Amino acid sequence: MLTKTISAKRRDSRIGDRIFDFSNNVFMIMLIVVTLYPFINTLAISLNDANDSIRGGIFLKPRVFTWYNYEYVFKEASIFHATLVSVLRTVLGTVICVFCSAMVAYTISRKEFVLRKFVTVAFVLTMYFNGGLIPNYLLIKELHLLNSFWVYIIPGTVGVFNIIVIRSFIEGLPEGILESARMDGCGEFTTFMRIVLPLCTPVLATVSLFVAVWQWNSWFDVFLYNSSNINLSTLQYELMKVLQSSNASMSQKSAADVFSNVAGQTTNQVTPLAVRATMTIVASLPIIAVYPFLQKYFVKGMTLGGIKG
């Protein structure tokens, strides 16, 4: 009797596991579809004739294929120079920010640092209170960073959120490893460079992804501080100007012209919808290309970095 009961429970357990696995697979497939569809739809619109896109009904593939939307976006020579500025800003800003944030995080993670609690509270308060746009602009002006490339780097040298994440990860490292390094004669900086940084690779990769995405997508600081210097313009800012230009040219057309183009045969023209879709793809592809190389560190870094608050 007992054997039959155990067999029945095992059978019910196997059935429950199968139902759970099936439900989980269905849910994950639906999640993938919901996640990928907006990007694929945007890609289809960017590769479709702009006037034809106004009719709607484009889902997973373009109805009238064309490269003209991309030709329109990249027709300005300044786009390529702005791309180089964006790449340089992203790489340099990410390296400096992550390294400096890691140094600060290591400092406030040391129990022998007397002011660690005070400094931590002071940092956290900056996440809730901000001086505002005008004081920030005046500060940048007083620092002589206007019309300078370093205005993209220096204000973001240290990120409080990044410090907290890295500090939590460092506090989870075995203290014996750090003590062994000190017994071998390593100073704090040597311990940080040779012991802490290699062990913090997962969380550093995670923070690097955060900072790189922010640096790559940022354009408002270009508008505020470097809008008069075309040599310091970034890709995001140039794409924004292209979108404004397409909006202005579209507003100058009459409704009759628009509908006649839609009803008639396709022409080499653009619309704000097509330009917006093309800009989204152009701005997203570099980050999407980088993410697979950091994915294995991303999950581990977020998990271990969030163990302690």
UniProtKB/TrEMBL annotation:
Keywords assigned: Cell membrane, Membrane, Transmembrane, Transmembrane helix, Transport
Segments crossing the lipid bilayer: 20-40, 79-106, 118-137, 149-170, 191-216, 273-294
Keyword Membrane on entry: yes
Record's subcellular location: Cell membrane
UniProt key word Aminoacyl-tRNA synthetase: no
SUPFAM superfamilies per the UniProt record, alphabetical: MetI-like (SSF161098)
Topology within the bilayer: Multi-pass membrane protein
Primary location class: membrane
Segments forming domain ABC transmembrane type-1: 83-291
Family that this chain belongs to: Belongs to the binding-protein-dependent transport system permease family.
Protein name: Aldouronate transport system permease protein
Source organism phylogeny: Bacteria, Bacillati, Bacillota, Bacilli, Bacillales
